[in-house]
Amino acid sequence: MSKSFPFDDWKTWPVVTGRVAAEPDLASGAAVFHQQGRGVAYASERELPALAIARIEGRSEEKVVVVQMEKTPTGEILCGARNIEGRDLVCMLDELTFVENFP
Prior knowledge:
Layout: H1 23-28, E1 40-41, E2 50-54, E3 62-71, E4 77-83, E5 88-92, E6 96-98
Antiparallel strand pairs: 1-3, 2-3, 2-6, 3-4, 4-5
């Protein structure tokens, strides 16, 4: 579910940190995905929300705001983000390059 938030006010966007996302987090726009009880909380050193460039194979680079990070049952780190058009995006942590500002 994509919920519209003003992009120029990204620092105030709701996020999910220190726990896994649940259905209400999707409805509020704080989360982009949930793993239906199978996810594991991920303690990131990075404060969310955070700006990043997403580089996903087969797609062009996208400027995104990361609002969520969780481990999968196999230990991979999934990230939930929104691009500047407000579209939700799920990707792996290694597909993101975090930036202070967009170039």
